[in-house]
UniProtKB/TrEMBL annotation, chains A, B:
<keyword id="KW-0663">Pyridoxal phosphate</keyword>
<dbReference type="InterPro" id="IPR015424">
    <property type="entry name" value="PyrdxlP-dep_Trfase"/>
</dbReference>
<keyword id="KW-0032">Aminotransferase</keyword>
<dbReference type="GO" id="GO:0008483">
    <property type="term" value="F:transaminase activity"/>
</dbReference>
<dbReference type="Pfam" id="PF00202">
    <property type="entry name" value="Aminotran_3"/>
</dbReference>
<dbReference type="InterPro" id="IPR015421">
    <property type="entry name" value="PyrdxlP-dep_Trfase_major"/>
</dbReference>
<protein>
    <submittedName>
        <fullName>Aspartate aminotransferase family protein</fullName>
    </submittedName>
</protein>
<keyword id="KW-0808">Transferase</keyword>
<comment type="similarity">
    <text>Belongs to the class-III pyridoxal-phosphate-dependent aminotransferase family.</text>
</comment>
<dbReference type="InterPro" id="IPR005814">
    <property type="entry name" value="Aminotrans_3"/>
</dbReference>
<dbReference type="InterPro" id="IPR015422">
    <property type="entry name" value="PyrdxlP-dep_Trfase_small"/>
</dbReference>
């Protein structure tokens, strides 16, 4: 579980500047006790551009955390697209809108031809929720298999398959947990065991769902046994759902899983229109999922998400009733999504992530500190394990490092099952100068704390 | 169930103009079989302003259907707020943002003081889903009581309490259906019976949830027995959730339930700050819900929604885990919501709805046609029953009327359990000229079809 200890402790306001303390107080009074803020000293951000954000005092921070503003904070193309469409019309999918259809076609062109349809939602949570509804309708099953520290969202249904949110005790009785990749674990064996466990109690498997970069499990770009696990769930009558909410839209820089430390040069399976964009994590495994879910970076921050799926499961779902989502696929959200996809292509962010990722990774590996354990990842999605002198996960150190970097104007967070993995997933405009700044500051912080 | 028969039949493309037929074909190919379009001749809308929308050929339509663009299509204040904030910064609730806090405070000021906190989501579905999570955490119960033809959204959890979506067969085993208002039904007796039925099988009641205008049940502004039903669910240990996704943000024009045909002049309970905005349907009953959900008109079309609740249930929920919604409460969504709320106040839409609603209702009642049955409603949310010669619900007539009005450039839809109730809920800028146009065209259509 992403430990609450990396968050601000509401009881700890003594050291805060008066304005910060007052905002914290007003926020808790109005928004209640369930919300969390980052850092011991919460940040009040007022402006963003590219990979940088600024606080109210005008201090600039390098954003190494936010994967949502994927093509850069406040990208002018995306902002203009939103403003222009909002000034024209914002309706819904019960009227015809050519731009919505054109975006659907454009997006599908980046997927294998077997993935024929797209349906729009407002959030990744809604997308995963809809994916499960579709999978259950299509298979007649109810069992869902997830990885050990999975996070798939916040609706009732997807919270019940997200052990990272409330622990394994919070899962639904039809959820089974397969061991995550890492530490020599093989997904195939774990998924086969979960299928057997479901069948033992008479629950038909509906789906195996995995985040294709295994972010909350600690960032694993080359999961051993994933392809065989997919074959196993299909043999048991279930579907394979690839959750691309975090990995998708080019962050991984294409490439093939298992092609060596940097992932190789192969950008994965070709899309429907023959395009080879390398936008999707599943493509690195040569897989063709039954359902794919999209979210976070899809509209560069605008609330838009989607389910992409084969025809047969959607037909089974449609036979049970119509689909409508008031805001899902509205013309303004589509304008944001189309502009974002256009920018990913025109500014060649897949190629950029593929080029800079391995350089950043090597630079992180070369930091001279016994506190750095394994460095993993692909493209601009990296995980850096922080360890103690004996090489064990060091959550306390990770918390110190995250807060010390914030003071040095570098924003990132810790994640993974031990909450000791630095999660590095900046906006894709992140360049070599930014990388040097990150590596330099991390080096300095580790020296300071050691 | 809102009958699929008011929707376009994908098999019926012969009469369509070539461009429309081609868009319908491309849309079905890309977006699949679960989506629906309005009307026998689907509309391609390209522009909106106030209560009007235009199709690609430049033909203007009077919008009597869309409650989402509540302060008018493409309202310049809302568009400017979105554009300005999108150009500055779009992040999330793990950083401090004064405008988000200020909006939360402003919004809470329109509620009774017992409703202390607000939490943000992207859609009404997510809001109702979160409300149920909170209610279940707070009560330890699992049973949920809804009205006969309720619609509360599209996530797995809320679809399972929405009989209007997939029929009563699609409901969860912990859902109980109480008879809706209308036809002399008393909600108190129906809810008491549902509570007894839950308890009989050992399910503890968690919540009674009602749309306070009972829109999908046929539009009932004065539900007999609602206050006693709320007392009954509380006595059984459950919470009362007021779903204001459709009724909220001023459409009902304030007033008290049961104060006569036009609802009276009392604008309901005062808010925390003493303001008397009459924004909420529950206030007309003098009720103080445990949880309120908001959505559709909250950002005038921008995807933003919320849960407003008492402190105790949110504390119980927070004790089980933190809350985060990537897009929920982001600064751009908040800017849209704040601008919308400001415009509702400054352009005095509550007073406008209170004034024009009764005039429109009387004009509809005065249409000289035996096909018009009961006319119900409050403010700018009205239902007009269409009946046959014997006074029975006439769904076939409603379908003809909806399509004939579309040809006469008036957009509305049919709803209610018999799908024979015309649902009149235009943008709140709808004025007396618009009302005359609607009434005149409806009169003409009924004469033509009789």
């Amino acid at each position: 579980m992403a430990g609450p200890s990396t968050y601000f402790d509401p009881a700890d306001t003594d050291e805060l500047a008066p304005r910060t303390a007052e905002l914290v107080r007003r926020r808790a009074a109005a928004m209640g006790p369930a919300y969390r803020l980052f850092y011991r000293e919460p940040l009040e951000l007022v402006r963003g551009e590219g990979a940088y954000v600024w606080d109210r005092a005008g201090v600039e921070y390098l954003d190494v955390y936010n994967n949502v503003p994927s093509v850069g904070h406040a990208h002018p193309r995306v902002v203009a697209a939103i403003a222009e469409q909002a000034a024209r019309l914002n309706t819904h999918t019960r009227y015809l809108d050519e731009a919505t259809i054109a975006y659907a076609e454009d997006l599908l062109g980046t997927f294998p031809g077997s993935l024929e349809h797209v349906m729009f939602t407002c959030s990744g949570s809604e997308a995963n929720d809809l994916a499960l509804r579709i999978a259950k309708a299509a298979t007649g099953g109810g069992g869902v298999i997830v990885t050990r520290n999975a996070y798939h969202g916040g609706t009732t249904e997807v919270a019940a398959i997200s052990p990272s949110l409330g622990g394994v005790d919070s899962l639904a009785p039809w959820t089974r947990v397969a061991h995550a990749p890492g530490g020599g674990a093989d997904l195939h064996a774990a998924v086969a065991s979960a299928i057997a466990d479901l069948e033992l109690v008479g629950i038909r498997p509906a789906a195996l769902i995995v985040d294709t970069i295994f972010a909350s499990d600690g960032v694993f770009p080359d999961a051993a046994g994933l392809s065989l696990a997919v074959a196993a769930i299909r043999a048991a009558g279930g579907l394979f759902i690839a959750d691309e909410v975090q990995a998708g839209f080019g962050r991984l820089g294409g490439g093939s899983a298992g092609a060596g430390p940097a992932g190789g040069d192969d950008a994965g399976a070709a899309g429907q229109n023959g395009a080879d964009l390398g936008l999707w994590g599943f493509a690195r495994y040569g897989l063709e999922p039954d359902i794919v879910t999209l979210g976070k970076p899809m509209g560069n921050g605008h609330p838009v998400a989607a389910v992409v799926a084969r025809r047969a499961p959607i037909e089974a779902f449609a036979a049970r009733g119509r689909y409508f989502n008031t805001f899902g696929g509205n013309p303004v959200s589509i304008a944001a999504a189309q502009a974002t996809l256009d920018v990913v292509r025109e500014e060649r962010f897949v190629e950029h992530a593929r080029a800079i990722g391995p350089r950043l990774r090597r630079a992180l590996e070369q930091i001279d500190s016994p506190r750095i354990g394994e460095v993993r990842g692909q493209g601009l999605f990296l995980g850096v394990d922080l360890v103690d002198d004996a090489g064990r996960p060091d959550e306390a150190l990770a918390i110190e490092v995250v807060n010390a970097l914030r003071q040095r104007r570098i924003l990132l967070a810790a994640s993974g099952p031990g909450n000791n993995t630095l999660k590095i997933r900046p906006p894709l405009v992140f360049n070599d100068t930014d990388a040097s700044r990150l590596v330099g500051e991390l080096d300095a912080v580790l020296k300071e704390l050691s």
